[in-house]
Amino acid sequence: MSTNYRYSDYSIEQLRAEIGKLKEKAQKAEQLGNISEVAVNERKMQVALAYTLNPKDFKAEKIYTLKTDPGYTFKINYINGVFAWGHRINLLNEMNEQEEAIPISLLGDAVKDK
């Protein structure tokens, strides 16, 4: 059994090193045209990055921009660990019915109330 298998057990330095390795793997996979491997490594990178953030900086019922999807915002229902559970909202202000969990590292700035 590995002692540092879960990102929650990693130190900030270990997380940063892991993010660097994953970024390198994603770049190599992209050069080789392996798109699915790129996506897997980028997703792992986002999860590792989430562990470098403070979940308390994100609030339920608030709406945040999405760093990787400028066509959507994200309304948080609740935070569980480093994942925000909630719904995407499109540019027409239509909320997706399906609740999803995303790493908090994908969340940008809180949207100002209109």
UniProtKB/TrEMBL annotation:
Pfam families: DUF1811
Domain of life: Bacteria
Protein name: YfhH family protein
Organism lineage string: Bacteria, Bacillati, Bacillota, Bacilli, Bacillales
